[in-house]
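Dataset card, provenance and construction

Sequences and ligand SMILES were collected as paired inputs. For each pair, a complete structure of the chain with the small molecule in place was predicted and serialized as structure tokens. The example below shows a pair involving 2-acetamido-2-deoxy-beta-D-glucopyranose. Curators did not alter the output after generation; any descriptive sentences attached to a record were derived from the structure itself.
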Amino acid sequence: MRFLNFVPLALCVHDVLAAGPPVFFFTKFPTSTTALRDELITRMDNISRWSCTNEPGVTKYALVIPRGGGDNLTAYSIEQYDDDPTFLSHLSAPLVSTSLFSWSTSTPNLWTSDPLVQNFTLLPNDMTFSKPEFAKASNPYIVVESLTYTSGGVHHVMDHWEEEVAAARNETGTLLFGVYGDPTNNNRLWTLAAYESEQYWREVHEKSETARELRFAWWAAEELVGLGSRFYCYNLTDNFPAEVDKILAYLNFDMVSQGTYYVSDGDGSTGRGWRTQPSADVIEKLWLDYFAGIGIAAKERAIGFDSDHFFFQEILKKSVGFLSRAWMLRRILAIIRRVTISIM
Ligand SMILES: *[C@@H]1O[C@H](CO)[C@@H](O)[C@H](O)[C@H]1NC(C)=O
Ligand SMILES: *[C@@H]1O[C@H](CO)[C@@H](O)[C@H](O)[C@H]1NC(C)=O
Ligand SMILES: *[C@@H]1O[C@H](CO)[C@@H](O)[C@H](O)[C@H]1NC(C)=O
Ligand SMILES: *[C@@H]1O[C@H](CO)[C@@H](O)[C@H](O)[C@H]1NC(C)=O
Ligand SMILES: *[C@@H]1O[C@H](CO)[C@@H](O)[C@H](O)[C@H]1NC(C)=O
């Protein structure tokens, strides 16, 4: 995962005019000196101003550098054109060809490596929005992120991203948000977002309901009837009840080395096990669907009191789920078999 946040230097936003697929890309310009980077910035800033007035089909044109200046050598552009003809017409505009292309080809050692162009493609559902306030923002906080999932994983996170886009639309200080595909990698998504300020991003967007946090915990003395996890749960109920409300669900990973894949029976369909809390079935379904999607036939196992999830379910009343594999069981069976054989 790459995480970049930027100061915009030149910013131009127009409403999207054409229905056709836009040309949308993010380019990294690795210049060899700070003076050349600054000259590139001046030239592209000038082009941006000209394009904003004269090229209505240029729907986004931003030149950005990392907050704090980064390495002082790299600049990035975010460019979106209504369609291919608009893009080609922009490339052949006299100002672009003289001020940018002639200059860059005639400047020796301008780049330390070729500029890197990353195209963004629109996803089938409406996963983008931009608000009129974005065009007026004086110093928006821009975040570009790439997320690479396991094979087929993008399919599983689409619902999450749809919710995230819907929620971000409601946030007054979230001025632009989009989730895009990557034509070079089916398992990667890109997000582009602009907030009215860094503070807004930190205080509001990151704390919104869909931007949930994961808390990782390693428990001690599970074999001694869950000493560590039990203590944790009682500490919260006894001393920090407000903390309990912050927990949505608990996932347990115990004995995950090798053998059959077992998924917690959250909907009680095995007819065995402890009673479950609401939504444990959602966890079960997510996992079963995930494994089915990658060609693994996972089995269900009843939710019992045999590991740390038990206390989260019974003390904190949280939905729980677990993944486990039958390694230990297989080992024990193999030992029993060997012992049986040697007795015989
Ligand atoms: C970039 O330039 C700024 C201002 O001149 C300087 O403070 C900073 O140390 C430079 N950063 C690097 C990585 O050279
Ligand atoms: C800036 O743009 C104007 C047109 O808007 C052009 O006349 C001028 O030459 C450009 N300056 C540079 C340094 O490219
Ligand atoms: C990226 O977009 C440009 C402009 O449409 C196109 O020429 C280029 O082939 C695209 N590259 C990829 C990898 O899709
Ligand atoms: C957005 O706000 C409206 C009005 O307050 C509300 O009805 C809707 O549920 C909200 N949508 C999301 C995704 O938060
Ligand atoms: C009890 O919970 C609080 C709040 O999460 C935590 O700060 C504290 O360290 C916990 N106590 C112990 C002994 O773990």
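Derived descriptions for this record:
The mean pLDDT is 86.
The chain has three domains: 1-120, 123-211, 227-343.
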